[in-house]
Amino acid sequence: xxxxxxxxxxxxxxxxxxxxxxxxxxxxxxxxxxxxxxxxxxxxxxxxxxxxxxxxxxxxxxxxxxxxxxxxxxxxxxxxxxxxxxxxxxxxxxxxxxxxxxxxxxxxxxxxxxxxxxxxxxxxxxxxxxxxxxxxxxxxxxxxxxxxxxxxxxxxxxxxxxxxxxxxxxxxxxxxxxxxxxxxxxxxxxxxxxxxxxxxxxxxxxxxxxxxxxxxxxxxxxxxxxxxxxxxxxxxxxxxxxxxxxxx
Length: 248
Ligand SMILES: [Zn+2]
Fold this sequence. Notes:
Strand order of the largest sheet: 1-2-4-3
Number of strands: 4
Bound molecules: zinc ion
Helix content: 40-55%
Mean pLDDT: 82
Distance between the termini: 27 Å
């Protein structure tokens, strides 16, 4: 499988696993999924194979179209914000992939989006891509899994414990490598790197970085080390975009 990374490589690289090339391609794919929705070609409650949205050639993320990944769109009552989730392939307790191809058509995962917009689709596509290239291993962090399992056991907690639990949960969630990866591309997608409409005057990196800190969800829950890693990654994207590498 091309683009496959091992668990340890992925762990080591943490938030830095995302490459600029895959970001540019995932963003194009997100726009094509959104266009299908905007043009009324996407029905609610139906699962579409991801290949239905392949309108061009993909060099970096191309392998994702060979996986059995579905795209599911369903509006939810009582929620106005755009959000989604990626239903990952099943893993056993050792983190090994369980073959679910006999039980579901989309054994490599289903991307679920409620209220579509490009950044949300991009976030979930990043999960799908990371899941695909790690052989299904990188959609759940083990620490978070253990924590949520423990929390799910009808545990009785005192009221004063709640803030700590909430804080721990947010740290686990926002620091999980796969979420860092997804929230990073989502934040970058919302940043305008130019001062002017003609896209000739490029913004100072410090300004872009300040905006990034506001747009990167859960930024305050990240460790200084992760924040530094993200700044380095952002600067790489910044220079690539300045060189005109992101043009459609
Ligand atoms: Zn996510």
